[in-house]
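WARN retry 2 of 3 for item q-0093 after timeout on previous attempt; input resubmitted unchanged.
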Amino acid sequence: MPVSVGIICNKAAGHDEHPAPRGGKFLWEQLHALSKLGADSIYVAMFDEIDEGTAIFKVTSAPPTQGHFVGYDGLPSDWYLRLVGEGGRLLKQHLSVPAEIPIQP
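OK item q-0093 returned
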């Protein structure tokens, strides 16, 4: 099942909104829902789409000041990789993915 961190639509829509990522909550809600459906694997959509703000690979929370960049709002640079790793581990082991994120940043 595909999952995504969401999208930061400020580039496409011309305004500064960050509707979906919410520190990983949007991604984790998808993993939780898939767990309830009995999924045992995931496909992570948008691994490297940094221009849309949907990348899960490591990025900085202190981007360059030239231009308009969005970081992870102070979260660790590998936060989304860790979330996907934890969710994937639980699904592969056929364990329930809890509603709340069980790991700390």
